[in-house]
Design brief:
It comes from Micromonospora sp. HUAS YX12. Its EC number is 2.1.-.-. Helices cover about 40% and strands about 25% of the residues. With about 280 residues, it is an alpha/beta fold. It has one domain: 3-Layer(aba) Sandwich (Rossmann fold). Strands 1, 2, 3, 4, 5, 6, 7 and 8 form an eight-stranded mixed β-sheet that branches. Bound molecules: S-adenosylmethionine.
């Protein structure tokens, strides 16, 4: 796999964030109740968190991502764990996979970043075999990463127009509509809370900066414009507002929505779906 960045996701040190997101991949894989007979596709797999877990349960697993740097890290990780996983370079809105090839479709903070939400949902539906299960995790609106996006947005180029903020995938009503537009049915939508522990606020700020490729990509320009230190100072103030000291640790929390969905034509009533919605834990 070519390891030159094709997108800003391949710049910076995303792996350090990916390690901290493992509990979310574990929750997604558990929610999918993966069996060895399942064919699993992990969309926007990144460094392969969910794909590695699925493959370690014996499932035939494919990880797809449009960033070659991520795939080369994922490939190395699978090799080190002696796991056979197919890694495919591909865009979430035009997956390089045949119709009906997946019994389980996973995407952890992945498909939410596709520019065209309806097209991405159509691709999720297209690769589902009859009766397939989907499990998607997405940051909820206003939580840590979406809020950080607003802080750094003042310093970054305007992103291309898309279907709307990625956190729509973490909004229960919006995700219901996005998936319904592709004939998929939400069967549960549960909010969870992820805790990120650091030695102090400075270490938290450093991780948020270093793992954000779209921020790192602008560092030289912002240095030249004497604005880089302002960006870091704004982020540090943001981290101070969002975090909390817990004995000798500094903790950031972020809520995400874990959505299960299916291709089945019998949709749960909205009350059933709502009943599984809990405030962040
Ligand atoms: C926040 S990372 C999540 C990675 C991984 N799923 C995890 O849990 O750590 C987002 C990933 O989505 C990929 N990605 C973003 N937009 C994509 C698109 N339109 N098509 C395919 N991959 C995409 C990025 O390259 C990156 O690896």
């Amino acid at each position: 796999m070519d390891s030159n960045p094709a997108t800003t996701w391949g710049i910076g040190n995303y792996s350090s964030m990916a390690r901290r997101l493992m509990p979310v991949a574990e929750a997604a894989v558990a929610a999918a109740a993966i069996r060895p007979s399942d064919r699993v596709v992990d969309i926007a797999t990144g460094t392969g968190n969910a794909a590695v877990l699925a493959a370690s349960r014996g499932a035939r697993t494919t990880g797809v991502d449009f960033e070659p740097v991520m795939l080369s890290l994922a490939e190395r990780r699978a090799t080190e764990s002696a796991l056979a996983i197919d890694w495919l370079l591909g865009e979430a809105t035009s997956l390089p996979l045949p119709d009906g090839c997946a019994d389980v479709v996973l995407s952890v903070f992945g498909v939410m970043y596709a520019a065209d939400h309806a097209a991405a949902a159509r691709e999720l539906a297209r690769i589902c075999a009859p009766g397939a299960r989907l499990v998607l995790a997405a940051w909820m609106p206003g939580t840590l990463l979406p809020a950080m996006g607003r802080v750094v947005g003042d310093y970054l180029p305007t992103p291309p127009a898309g279907s709307g903020p990625p956190s729509r995938w973490g909004d229960p009503e919006a995700i219901d509509a996005i998936l319904a537009s592709a004939g998929l049915h939400v069967t549960s939508a549960v909010s969870h809370r992820l805790h990120l522990d650091f030695t102090d606020a400075e270490a938290a700020t450093a991780l948020l900066v270093d793992s954000a490729g779209h921020v790192v990509a602008e560092r030289d320009r912002l240095h030249a414009e004497h604005r880089w230190n302002d960006l870091v100072a704004d982020l540090r103030a943001f981290v101070d507002r969002h975090g909390a000291v817990d004995t000798d640790r500094f903790v950031l929390t972020s809520d995400y929505l874990l959505v299960t969905a299916s291709t089945d034509t019998v949709s749960p009533t909205s009350t059933e779906a709502d009943a599984t919605l809990q405030p962040g834990r």
